[in-house]
Amino acid sequence: MVRCPMCNMKTTERVVNEHLDRGCPETPSAEERKQSGGNFFKPSPTVAENKKEGQEQESESGTRSSPIERKRSSESEGSVKKPKRQKMSNVPLAEQLRPKSLDDFVGQEDIVGPEGALRRFIDKDVCPSIILWGPSGVGKTSLARIIAQRTKSRFVELSAAVHGLNDCKKIFDEAKNDQKLLHRKTILFLDEVHRFNRAQQDAFLPHVERGDITLIGATTENPSFKINSALSSRCRVIVLKKLTKEDIAQIMRRGLKTVNENRAEDGLGSIEMDDEAVDYLAGLADGDGRVALNVLEMAINSQVEKETESNVRIDSEVIKTTLKRTHMLYDRVGDSHYDTISAFHKSVRGSDPDATLFYLGRMLESGEDPLFLARRMVRIASEDVGLADDSCLPFAVNTFTAVQQIGMPEADCILAHCAVKLAQAPKSVLVYRAYNEVKRSLKEDPGMASAVVPIHLRNAPTKLMAEIGYGKEYKYNPQYQDGKCKQEYMPEGLEDRKFLGDLHLGTDIDPDL
C-alpha cells in the first residue's frame, strides 16, 4: 500500500495514477480548471512576449524603470508608509549565529574540517545513519541543519522531548511513499534521541535497516548506555568534543560583530569587549558555545537598558555582576555527573584534599544529592582507607546519618569534614584486592563455587545431621590457648589457596616523581 501525495489516502501502487486522474478529491477536474481561470495550468509567457511588453513600457515612459524604482516613486508620491523591518536583534544571539555552512562551523576540525570524514559524506550527499554524541552547545543540531541545506533528500526534524512514536511512524509511512513514487530519500533528524525508551528505539530498526530513512540522532548521553545496541550498531557514532577556549572566543567575537551590525543599522553605538573579558567568559562557558552567547547577550542587555547612541563597554566585572554567581555546568544525570564523582573519588584516593574539596563543592553547589555523596564516602572509607585507619568507616557512616538528619545547607561542612579526613588518612586496599580476587576466582572456576564444605564446619540443627557427623570434629577456637588449634577451613582441594595479600599498597615506583 502507498499513500496518495494529494489526499494522503491509502491505495495500491498499481492504481495510484488512475486514482489521481479520476478519483482523488484534491485533484481539480478539467471543468474546474477551465472555470477557475487560474494561471497554474496556463503556459508561461515566451521571451518574445516579455520583450514586447518591456518595449511597450519603455515607449510609454521614455526609459524603462526597475520594479524597485517604480515602487519607491509611487511611495514618495503617495502617503504609503514603508513597512517596518523585522529586527534581527529580536532573535536570540545564539540563533543568529547558527552556522549556515561547514565553512562557518567552529570546532570539530577532525570531523567537518577539509579532511573530515563527515564532511566528505555531506559534500557527496551520501550521509549514512549517524548518532551525534556530545555535550550541549557543540553544534549537533547546527550540523544536522547544515546537512538539511546540502542534501537533495527530504529532511524532517523531530525532537524526542516533544514528539512521540506516532509522529515517527507517520514519517516512516511518508518516507516509503516518497521512495516509491518520487524516488526521493528521507533523512530524519531526531534530537534528544536518548529520551526514547528501548521499545521506542526498536521501532526504528526495520526502517533504518531497509533504508526507508536515514537516521541522524543527537544525544548528550553515552550511546553505549542510552541507545539500543541494535540501533547503534546500524549507525555510525560520531563524537563531538567540547569546544576549546579558542573556539568559544572565536564564536563570541562573531557574536559581538553581529550585535554591532544590528545596532549600527538602528543608529546605535557599538559594544566593546576587552580580551580579558572574552577569555573570562570563554573559560566560564566550559566548552558550550550556546552558554557563552547567552551569557554575552545577558551582559549586553544588562548594560544597554535603553536605546542609546553611545558606545557600551563590557568587561569581566560586568559579566560577574550580571551572573551574580559562577555558572555551574554540572549535569546531575548525565556524563558530567559520573565524571565529577569519579574525579572526587580518585582525588580522595590520591590523598589530595584540595582537589577533593573542589569536586565536592562543584557537585554540592550545583544541586547534587548530599546523601549520594555521603554514601560514596562510606564506600571510600572501606575500599581505599580500609585497614589502614579503622576509624574512617564508622566516621563515614556517622556522616551519612548526620546528613540524613540535618540536610542542606547545614550538612555541607559535615561532608567537607569527612571528605578531608578520608583524603588525609593512610590508605590500604588489602581487603578490596582480596575480595576482588575471590570474585574473579569464583567467576573463572565454576567448580570452586560448588566445592563441598568440610563436614566438621557444617551446622547440625537436627538429630539426623548430628548422627551423620555434621560438626562432629569441630574444634571451638576460644577453648584453646590464644585461640589456636590445628583445623582446616578451606574445602578439599583448596587448602593452600590464599586471597589476602601482605601489602596494603602496591610496590610500583612512579617515574614522574
Automatic annotation (TrEMBL):
GO molecular function, one term: ATP binding
Region (Disordered): 12-96
Top-level taxon in the UniProt lineage: Eukaryota
AAA+ ATPase domain boundaries: 126-243
CDD domains for this protein: AAA (cd00009), HLD_clamp_RarA (cd18139)
The family this protein is said to belong to: Belongs to the AAA ATPase family. RarA/MGS1/WRNIP1 subfamily.
UniProt keyword Repeat present: no
UniProt keyword Chloroplast, yes or no: no
Annotated InterPro entries: AAA+_ATPase (IPR003593), AAA_assoc_2 (IPR032423), AAA_ATPase_RarA/MGS1/WRNIP1 (IPR051314), ATPase_AAA_core (IPR003959), DNA_pol3_clamp-load_cplx_C (IPR008921), MgsA_C (IPR021886), P-loop_NTPase (IPR027417)
A single GO cellular-component term on record: nucleus
Record key words, sorted: ATP-binding, DNA replication, Nucleotide-binding
UniProt-recorded name of the protein: AAA+ ATPase domain-containing protein
SUPFAM superfamilies xref list: P-loop containing nucleoside triphosphate hydrolases, post-AAA+ oligomerization domain-like
Gene Ontology BP annotations: DNA strand elongation involved in DNA replication; DNA synthesis involved in DNA repair
Compositional bias annotation for Basic and acidic residues: 12-35, 67-80
